[in-house]
């Protein structure tokens, strides 16, 4: 009983003797006043109508929940709109009608009428139902505006938005026919001169394709039909072409005058590989011998290297002329020193000899920006690319390509290594150096790729394959901005040299 007495005392204390003057208006009073106001004002648009219509709605759920908030015009917290299905339909309709032409004469009156009808029919302004409105390009930052953290307004591309990776086309830039091509893995039938002329050996003939003009010229043809061309090599200046033949000879041609200068005979078997080092021409034969020819002398044969027991199918002088690399069908990779005039022929001249490959080594390439680095590729039984350090004699890296390797070349524009493949892929692969991660594959040849060579500007690689086609892949084009900067630098250095000479 004491508990009930305590509650009665509490109720008597809280009981009000008079109404509260500053209390909110009761709901029945709000409804009565809103009905009177709407009867007076009708459908005229304005602030009063807005308030009456919004306040006349009785909430279907507990007051305070699902309450529509209006965004604050002067700062405050962010506004997250809540739209019902009807508003989404209206917004979709507005998006479809956004591109329609509008009569500018009655724009002001039409907008007022539209707002009034929208308020009466929908209960809200139709302009507020728009999901997205594009108002043109972003404005530039005011003059003198600085923000070290971020740029709020900008129309220029930022460095992060610039495309950093180049596009490598999967299709060749040009395809040339190569009929009567001899499909022999051990031959070297393609070479690109510094004067932008591509030399191709087709059976017993040599053709020249001027990559600048597009002209094709027949340079020479062997007298006997059973003989065939085995190897080609341009001089550094691009004016003379050395040709190795199946009748054990090496011919030297003046390309500009289309005249044979001399025919040098010293080998006892076909000459399948050639390489120039200034006035010294080195030739590799099926006998396993490598001969050095001094083309300035009547007695041209000055030296013989006898490190291979089978056909020498790969031969490359390093860019600085210090080393000669040779690869043979005996799976060996040999490195020889510069020719010493007057010295006797002996095997002690061999600097390095690696026997890690398990197949014929025809593919050889010196790194242009690292003179002591040599890349070699093995045949069908090996399929490995190996990178060698000539100074230390160690194998830096090795990669299994799962395919026969017929040719290798370094692409200096992007510091990459390009490999040509026979069985089983018959394609061209581009590898990042020195990681040897694959950058791209160039597919298109229908038979094994026999040789590849790089253009003078190092932007295009030419490949020749057993499908009797030559394909040009423009995969190493330099960015125009970097190209212009490089040309300006070369021009400035050449002008300085010219002035010092004068």
From TrEMBL:
Q: What gene, per UniProt, encodes this protein?
A: CDC20
UniProt record, GO biological process:
anaphase-promoting complex-dependent catabolic process; positive regulation of anaphase-promoting complex-dependent catabolic process
Under Gene Ontology molecular function, one entry of this record is:
anaphase-promoting complex binding
Protein name as it appears in the record: CDC20/Fizzy WD40 domain-containing protein
In residue terms, where are the WD repeats?
Answer: 222-263, 305-336, 379-398, 442-474
Annotated Gene Ontology cellular components are: anaphase-promoting complex
Identify the CDD domains for this entry: WD40
List the lineage, top down: Eukaryota, Metazoa, Chordata, Craniata, Vertebrata
Q: What keywords is this UniProt entry annotated with?
A: Repeat, WD repeat
Q: Where does the record place the region Disordered?
A: 28-80
């Amino acid at each position: 009983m004491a508990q009930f007495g305590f509650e009665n005392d509490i109720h008597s204390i809280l009981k009000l003797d008079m109404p509260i003057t500053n209390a909110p208006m009761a709901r029945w009073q709000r409804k009565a006043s809103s009905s009177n106001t709407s009867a007076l004002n009708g459908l005229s648009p304005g602030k009063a109508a807005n308030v009456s219509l919004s306040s006349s709605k009785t909430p279907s759920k507990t007051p305070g929940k699902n309450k529509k908030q209006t965004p604050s015009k002067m700062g405050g917290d962010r506004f997250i709109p809540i739209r019902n299905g009807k508003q989404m339909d209206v917004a979709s309709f507005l998006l479809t009608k956004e591109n329609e032409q509008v009569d500018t004469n009655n724009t002001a009156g039409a907008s007022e009428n539209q707002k009034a009808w929208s308020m009466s029919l929908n209960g809200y302004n139709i302009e507020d139902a728009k999901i997205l409105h594009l108002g043109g390009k972003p404005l530039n930052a005011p003059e003198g505006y600085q923000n070290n953290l971020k740029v709020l307004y900008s129309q220029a591309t930022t460095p992060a938005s610039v495309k950093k990776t180049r596009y490598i086309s999967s299709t060749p830039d040009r395809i040339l026919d190569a009929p009567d091509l001899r499909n022999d893995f051990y031959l070297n039938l393609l070479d690109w001169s510094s004067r932008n002329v591509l030399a191709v050996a087709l059976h017993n003939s040599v053709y020249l394709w001027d990559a600048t003009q597009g002209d094709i010229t027949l340079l020479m043809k062997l007298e006997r039909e059973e003989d065939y061309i085995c190897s080609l090599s341009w001089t550094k200046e691009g004016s003379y072409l050395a040709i190795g033949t199946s009748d054990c000879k090496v011919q030297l041609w003046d390309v500009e005058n289309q005249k044979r200068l001399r025919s040098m005979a010293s080998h006892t078997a076909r000459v399948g590989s050639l390489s120039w080092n200034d006035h010294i021409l080195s030739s590799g034969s099926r006998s396993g011998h490598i001969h050095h020819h001094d083309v300035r002398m009547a007695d041209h044969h000055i030296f013989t290297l006898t490190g291979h027991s089978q056909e020498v199918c790969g031969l490359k002088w390093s860019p600085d002329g210090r080393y000669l690399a040779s690869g043979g069908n005996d799976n060996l990779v040999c490195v020889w020193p510069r020719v010493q005039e007057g010295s006797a022929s002996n095997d002690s001249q061999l600097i390095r000899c690696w026997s890690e490959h398990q197949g014929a080594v025809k593919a050889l390439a010196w790194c242009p920006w690292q003179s002591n680095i040599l890349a070699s590729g093995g045949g069908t039984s090996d399929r490995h690319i190996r990178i060698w350090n000539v100074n230390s004699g160690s194998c830096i890296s090795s990669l299994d390509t799962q395919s026969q390797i017929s040719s290798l070349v370094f692409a200096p524009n992007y510091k990459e290594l390009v490999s040509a493949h026979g069985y089983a892929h018959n394609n061209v692969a581009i590898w990042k150096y020195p990681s040897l991660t694959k950058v791209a594959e160039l597919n298109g040849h229908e038979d094994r790729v026999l040789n590849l060579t790089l253009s003078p500007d190092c932007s295009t690689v030419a490949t020749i394959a057993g499908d009797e086609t030559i394909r040009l892949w423009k995969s190493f084009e330099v960015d125009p901005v970097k190209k212009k900067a490089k040309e300006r630098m070369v021009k400035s250095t050449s002008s300085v040299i010219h002035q010092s000479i004068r």
